[in-house]
Amino acid sequence: MIYGRYQHLANGVAWFLAGWLAFGFPFSYFQFTPSVRAGGATMYLLWDSTNGDPPDGWVTQSGSGDPAYQRFLRGDAAVSALSTGGNEAGIHNHTLSNMTVSTNIAGAAYKNNRADTVDCALSHSHNILASFMDDATILPKYRDLVLIMYEAGMPDFLPADVIVGFASGASIPSGFTQYSSQNTNFVRLADATGSSTGSNTHTHTNVAIILDVCDTISLNNRGANVVASEKHFHQYSGTSPTGDHTPPSTGLPLYSVDDADTPLPTDMIAFFNASPPTWWTSLSESGGDFYQKYIYGNSTYATGTGSATHNHPGVTQLVTGAAVDPGPVLVDPGTPSASAASSTHTHTITTPTYSNENNDPPYINVVVAKYDPPDLTWSSGILDSYTIYESGTLTWGAGTEVCSATLTDDNSSTVECSGDGIDDSTQYRIDVVLKNVGSVAAHMYGGSDTVTFKNIIGGWAGTTPTIGSCGFYDSGSDDTGTPSCTPASGANDVILSNIGASSEVILAASSGLEGFMLIVTTDSDATTSSTSYMDTIIDTNSEDSSKITVSLASALGITAPDNIVLAASNPGAVSETTFETDELVVVTDGGSGWSLTAAMQTTFSDGGSNTIPDASVYLHKDGNVETEDEYTIWSGDVENVTETDETVSLDESRSVGTRSSGTGGDTTNVRPTIKIIMPVDQAIADYDGVIRFTVV
User: pTM to 2 decimals?
Assistant: First the structure.
């Protein structure tokens, strides 16, 4: 039996590796941290006093003696901020009108014959003399909360437990819990949080309508029955129908902040004492959802509720009581000559109209505004939004693309910058797309707003990389600042900042995609770095991209099985052995193709004087790569791979196959067929030798 040992060896011109190495900046990500710019206004928020005193830097504005004390929160234009008004007493009444009295009566009619009496005729009516009712509340269903003010004007962060609102369509971020205790309750400001009180509807008790004396009389001269005199009158007493006194209002979803130092989220709603500052949009100017609207807590954003005035819908009719007579007349029986009304008769009154009365409880006006900063996102919807080019030119998209990745805003995921990877001692430019989907522009202000490339120096670019120039990708043609890239003091970071004027526009919502560029020349020891990422501070945005893995450039390499057992052969006989399916010679492409050769490294020998000459060992090929393989069998990445159709001895280096071009990292497998012609004069024994496979 003949044994063939197959070993891959390096030669002077071959790339030779047992495998491949990865490098780059794995786990790179981008992060914005808040940098809030205050205007002239001061922020007000709500507070639940069961959490104790307001946070540091915040003071109560609704204590006893404060203008806001026991007043309802109402939105209005900036010119009316902190003004007060409404029904100070919190009660109201109505006047009644459009009433008539029927001539139909209830109660027996009598005929009487007495000359000295004047009675009310059987068919008669009355005029309305007066009407009144008890007062009722104008306060809607409410719950007290504390109004607090930030002493320094505008906070950079929100403290724990403060209560904020969210605008229509807002995506509620993590770290905010719905403050459901206020749902369906109007916000009344006080020195302590209370329980739900009152109702949005009411009735008036002791509604009274008094009728004048009889307007039609009859002269009677006999009888023995009690009849109503001409002096009698009637009155109605009852309770009004229910009225709805809900004032013009907007339902606001309220949320409490879970943690201290929470960044201000987009679409957050707060209150101000003047026109809101930059990046805040007023919702309480004329035509806005909160213009002269009271605020109540609600599970969802709700507009168009309530009305400025109310009345009370009537019933079909009101029925008076019996006649009220200062002296009912008792007459003797006789021959009837006229009809008179009984003292027990009643009248009906047509439904009265209640006057429209104002629904405004006592209020204090605030400017209601939502936070509308530039909305920057790494998830731009553009493929290859993170791209590395081999280039020394600070021109967006220029050079040879090395790798690219599509970023998202989810920093719990990792994306791979796929391609050929990074080499040592090579100049590269990184292009990163940033998109503004907000309605206002973002700016970089001097050195306060930065893009920081963390841990480049001593990180993925090697121990001492060369930091080149940097720049903005200015699709909006509105950047007149000067970018600067400098190593951070005492750190391994490179900071990109704008050293131009203090109000340069970098990202305009109307301009689409923009971004940043940086040129770096790697050191001779470029390597992987699990601590590399990017941190940026631009306006108030805080946004992380997905983490990014960038690999080292793939090197040309080869692996082969350690031992192959060839078929047994007798002296003078011919044997052929094709490598098994798990006995692969594997070539890793370096990105430019390769040539694979085989040659005898050590002549087959039985360990003594018996050998098989190298010229008697052959490589059997069939010229087929992708179909009808019979001898040299290929698999893996075989595009552009070719071989010849011949059987060649291995007394010198012979071609197994070539790949004209390829992609770095591709692997191509081959299972060769070895043919041996056993010399007739050799002994039967086990023969051992080495065949060298080389790739260049």
Answer: 0.62
